[in-house]
Write a structure and sequence with these properties.
By secondary structure, this protein is of the alpha/beta class. Helices cover 51% and strands 8% of the residues. It is built from 16 helices and ten strands.
Amino acid sequence: MVDFAALHDARPAGLGAAADAYDALGRANSAHHEAIKEGVRWIVHGGNWTGSAAEAATRALERTDGRLDGSHTAMQGMGILLRDAAEAFELAQAKLLEAVEEAGRAGFPVGADGAIDCPQPGEADRHDPDYAALGAPRQAQARALVVRIDGALAEADAADRQVASLLDRLAEGARSGFGVNRDAAATRLDSINSLGRKLIGAGWPADDASPEQVHSWWQGLTPAEQRKLIADHPDLLGNRDGIPSAVRDQANRIMLPRLLDAYRHKPQPLSPADQQKLDGFDAIRKRLAGELPDGGGPGSDPPLLLIGLGEQGQGRAVLSWGDPDTARHVSALVPGLNSTLAGAAGGDTATALRIRQAAGGEATATASMIWLGYDAPLLDGASVLTKDRAVDGAASYDRFLSGLRSTHQGAAPAHVTAVGHSYGSLLVGQAAQRPGGIPADDVVLVGSPGIGADHASQLSVGAGHVYVGSAMTDPVSRLPSSTDAVATGLGAGALGPVGAGAGHRVDPRGLWFGQDPAGAEFGAHRFKVDDGTPTDSHDNYFGKNGKGGDSLANIGRIVGGHPDQITREDGR
């Protein structure tokens, strides 16, 4: 059991020195290994030696090679284990010392066993009005410090037990010789890597902790602890909802070159999926370096934050013009069909900037982002015909917005607008229908194929806060319902003259994913957009190439908190 004195006086840095020694030993072992392999291989294979003796020598060489390889892996594992243990103990010790220091500042003596001396209230104290105002809060402060000290000790003790157990197994493997078996050593290294992640995460919130709990945990760390975790474990912070956006940006900027390097060094040629992710990560790099139109490089105004990055599925990215933790107005745009990482970094990020500019106001008043936190359906697959990806993505989007609520600074929460385009509008609509609702104030749906709702009142923001833009010639927002599709036959002929809605014969208000959000019966506010043509209208809602009519200006008014100023048109 790790007690107070042991953790208080521990010198975890010594474990790092031991890890360095194992690394040096491993390098020397590797050098000898290579020398032996080269020398013996020439004797066995270079002299045209054949026969049963040569075969036996070859088998012996393979066994020796395996043991030397296993020995090197075991030494590598020791270095990793000792470093992870040192870091876990350093974090636990930092929490303990911070609590002790805070107790000293508050005037609470801390005993040699870690106990805090805080006199218990007597009968008279309980009836003293001054005690209620002064004494009771001090008692509560003392109890909180006790909890923090006990938590640090428990954290260190858990790490100590797990490290000791694995060290015992490594020692037994060395004594028996099993530890230098190549396969056994590789398996043990996997166990060490897994344990290392558990040690670092021992004091972290559980995977299912709410963003509010994550934020509370982060705020409870010392600045030194926070800096260390950003530098050493950016992979655990960059996509964790509840971590401040500026911290996520730092972590993801550390991870981006690592992802680029990992994909560049994969066996070539890359699969189409991996190539698409590599292209996407490189596009994000170019965006952050200021190499793409509309800027985003160092010192850009507004600053561009990378608050989401990952290789899951088709890839993940969240880029924000401005810090959503300090902005008064926040817009989170979800793109739709055929969205990729490269597209998110390129045209979609440019779209987010136009939305921010359209919102107007002071330079720091609005943060506008592109959220690609799901696998958008591709036109060449059947996924676009189902709402499965939207349903899955809705949970992630909901949690992301909850994270922004928890990290926002200031007395009043930010005004949040959830914006969905095309299939992304289905995702936003599904999020707004989740139990408990979506943590947003307004919802904007443009170019929507339906959101799986019959009326705007089914969205958690209320019908009065749902806004729809839909061009009459937009083929996506005029797709027939499944009933009409069966009646008319899928394909180009199912739509007929798009603007006339010829494909809507049986269900005139139905779209592929439910009732038409732009329909009069849906109950949303419909704002004016330019109808354009069937070939460009779906891409014009955000003012691309100056097109779209009033659409971008109207979206900006909603995002900027002035929805009463939108130009309106009747539901169709």
